[in-house]
TrEMBL record:
Originating species: Canavalia gladiata (Sword bean)
A GO molecular-function descriptor: calmodulin binding
Protein name: MLO-like protein
Membrane topology of the entry: Multi-pass membrane protein
Compartments, as annotated in UniProt: Membrane
């Protein structure tokens, strides 16, 4: 019998190959079926935003899978790209390494060079892609779960808006000085106009009562007064939940610029940059910056209302405006949150992959302090972002100039679309030449509502609203 150093498919029993293929196919079908059931569930519950978020996650998993497939196909070609040894020994992840050039491709070894990326290195990179996909999915699930947990905490506050005590506190016949209101007492302090104390206080508030009851009530009151009539019984908490689902749809997406930062993370992971001292802290620093800005916006709204009037009716009224946000663009903060969550997943995936493949005491994190920092930073960012920052953004961003179309349920939006189609047909039957101008004038000049996506004038059946 020939002495075979490596077992290949040529000398592997067909039953073994068939068994492995069968198991992998069954697992893949089960995962695909579970995702299909989850999509049907979101459709049945009319959770359009969650359905779109799931579709984004599936497309990103396909992208990562396709990347892994390309690496498999081009494994040999990548290994045959030769570079000088002096170049291949620069920006290494470890301070000192020994090289066994006999294992490199014969083509490069004959030229006195080394491969750009060895075949073993390509395989290891494929393992890393698997861990990245796994951590991205886990991060998305945890983020949404923590956000919903925060919303359930706010549900009890929403129930208090129907009590007599709340009605008395917000009675418009009652006059108070601005600084005597509960909202004013919380935000109009000695530090409010002191630049040296203002931002540190906003920074600390993320960790203790990031959204107090008085903040919630005041922002709720300002939103309803700006969008609806006084005394409206609008369920603000359900609206915020739908807004969080809409924000989650954006958060799970991975933009091209986020991929660029991920590649830069791999590049700067070299020992020459001492990356273990600063690289793990980037997601946390950006997260604290976003949270501090959101806390600052709440205080800025209080200061703005105080400057406009020293005496208020009922309670202090804050006015929605985009000028409180950076560059007048509220969604900039949401894109930063998306960057934070993916970078955190990327770092945790990198840590797990390197620990399993090279050992917990490998050159990537041979010091105990480095291991503790990476694990603590990853867990802290995940919890803080999911439970504090994202729900805080969902609340504060409602004080922008535009109002999200999630103010209505899917039934109401579907009713609006039906009404819109009927109106177009009626206008076309009456005067086909004025169809576009008449209908668009009616929609764009209506003062009733104005959404982020499009201006809409609304007349909807009450049965749709109740559903």
């Amino acid at each position: 019998m020939a002495n075979v150093s490596e077992t290949t498919l040529e000398n592997t029993p067909t039953w073994a190959v068939a068994t492995v293929c069968f198991i992998l196919i069954v697992i893949s079908i089960l995962i695909e079926h579970l995702l299909h059931l989850l999509s049907k569930y979101f459709k049945r519950k009319r959770k359009k935003s969650l359905f779109e978020a799931l579709e984004k996650i599936k497309s990103e998993l396909i992208l990562l899978g396709f990347t892994s497939l390309l690496l498999t196909v081009s494994e040999k070609h990548i290994a045959n790209i030769c570079i000088p040894k002096s170049v291949g020994e620069t920006l290494l992840p470890c301070a000192s390494m020994t090289f066994d050039y006999d294992e490199e491709e014969t083509k490069c070894a004959e030229q006195g060079k080394i491969s750009l990326l060895s075949r073993e290195g390509v395989r290891q990179l494929q393992y890393f892609i698997f861990y990245l996909a796994l951590y991205h999915v886990i991060s998305c699930i945890l983020t949404f779960s923590l956000g919903m947990a925060k919303m359930r905490h706010w549900a009890s506050w929403e129930a208090e808006t129907t009590t007599l005590e709340y009605q008395i506190s917000y009675d418009p016949r009652r006059f108070q000085l601005t600084h005597q209101t509960s909202f004013g007492k919380r935000h109009l302090n000695y530090w409010s106009n002191n630049p040296l104390l203002y931002w540190p206080v906003c920074l600390v508030r993320q960790f203790y009562k990031s959204v107090s009851k008085v903040d919630y009530f005041t922002l709720r009151h300002g939103f309803i007064m700006a969008r609806f009539s006084e005394g409206s019984n609008f369920d603000f908490q359900k609206y915020i939940r739908r807004a969080l689902e809409k924000d989650f749809e954006v958060v799970v997406g991975i933009s091209w610029w986020i991929w660029i930062f991920s590649v830069l993370y791999i590049f700067f992971n070299a020992n020459a940059f001492s990356s273990h001292f600063w690289l793990p802290f980037i997601p946390l620093m950006v997260l604290l910056l976003v949270g501090t800005k959101l806390q600052g916006i709440i205080t800025d709204m209080c200061l703005d209302s105080h400057d406009n009037s020293l005496v208020v009716r009922g309670t202090l009224l804050v006015k929605p405006s985009d000028h409180f946000f950076w560059f007048g663009w509220p969604k900039l903060l949401l894109h930063l949150i998306s960057f934070i969550l993916f970078q955190n997943s990327f770092q945790l995936a990198f840590f797990t992959w390197s620990s399993i493949r090279f050992g917990i005491r490998s050159c990537f994190h041979h010091e105990t302090e480095n291991i503790i920092i990476r694990v603590v930073m990853g867990v802290l960012v995940q919890i803080l972002c999911g439970y504090v920052t994202l729900p805080l953004y969902a609340l504060v961003t409602q004080m922008g100039t535009s109002m999200s179309n999630v103010v209505f349920t899917e039934n109401v939006i579907r009713g609006i679309h039906i009404w819109h189609d009927k109106a177009k047909k009626n206008v076309a039957l009456r005067n086909p030449y004025s169809q576009r101008s008449t209908l668009h004038t009616s929609l764009e000049t209506s003062p009733s509502f104005r959404f982020d996506d499009a201006p809409v004038s609304i007349s909807v059946d009450r049965s749709l609203i109740r559903s």
